[in-house]
Design a protein that fits this description.
This protein has eight helices and nine strands. It is α/β, with parallel strands linked by helices.
Length: 265
């Protein structure tokens, strides 16, 4: 039986993040990938120069086309820049009874360009996050969404994750890639337990698409039937290896992408 995951996200014309990164990740992890495109970005390794939001009715048409035909095992949700987009995505998830949903609350690209409209934050909390099986904010996104300083240590990471739980999240993977120190530490915080994941921090500027890739890898693991902790562990290992291999095949003049197919070439 072929496992299937759907990426609901924005398109990155540079190929390193968003829909493109998600499809590469699904393929690398032996999962069939389908898509619902929420936005088009004019983007490369140096930044985002333009964003064109897909109309809500066309987002819903994509949901109807994909989910009415294909048996979907998991959904990864990425860039949703406007309230209307979030509401269209939630309507699609509800219409097709999707519960294995991983939400990556993409706010800012690696280049520093903002990807989430201020008006969308309230909708993110009230209508999308409560429907997710897992949300995957990095340190900067967690701080911005909660209106808190960036977590300086693991205790504060856990405290911020618990704040998301209090606001309706079922589970939170708070990612420490933007932290400091020799290890990149992520915490998976569920209502009844906390699981810690560590990996050596890789010194490279080629980290474009890491957040998209990690959340897509978790969704791929869930699609294949792994538990949340196992899917996260496998995703962390995959992304760490993809970052470590990024400098072997540099792309562009800015923050290049991770190497999604490091196992093969």
């Amino acid at each position: 039986m072929t496992s299937v995951a759907v990426s609901v996200a924005g398109s990155d014309s540079g190929g390193g993040a968003g829909i493109q990164a998600d499809l590469k990740t699904f393929a690398a992890l032996s999962v069939y990938g389908a898509t619902v495109v929420t936005a088009l970005t004019a983007q490369n390794t140096n930044g985002v120069t333009a964003i064109h939001d897909v109309p809500p009715d066309f987002i819903e048409a994509q949901f109807d086309a994909v989910f009415s035909d294909i048996a979907v095992d998991a959904v990864k949700v990425g860039m949703l820049s406007k309230r209307e987009t979030i509401e269209a995505v939630v309507a699609g998830l509800d219409r097709f009874g999707q519960t294995n949903v991983v939400v990556d609350p993409v706010m800012v690209a690696t280049s520093g360009d903002r990807l989430l409209d201020e008006s969308a934050v309230d909708a993110l909390f009230h209508v999308l996050i409560p429907r997710a099986r897992l949300i995957t904010p990095n340190l900067l996104e967690a701080a911005a969404l909660l209106d808190r300083p960036v977590a300086p240590n693991e205790n504060e990471m856990r405290s911020q994750a618990e704040r998301f739980l209090l606001r309706g999240a079922k589970a939170v993977l708070i990612k420490g890639g933007h932290g400091t120190g020799p290890e990149a530490i992520d915490l998976l915080v569920e209502r009844d337990k906390v699981t810690r994941f560590t990996a050596p921090r890789v010194a490279t500027k080629n980290t474009h698409g890491t957040g998209c890739t990690l959340s897509a890898a978790v969704a791929a693991g869930i699609a294949k039937g792994y538990s949340l902790a196992d899917a996260t562990r496998r995703a962390k290992d995959y992304v760490t290896a993809a970052i470590a291999a990024a400098d072997k095949h540099p792309i562009g003049t800015g923050h290049g992408p991770v190497h999604h197919f490091h196992r093969w070439w």
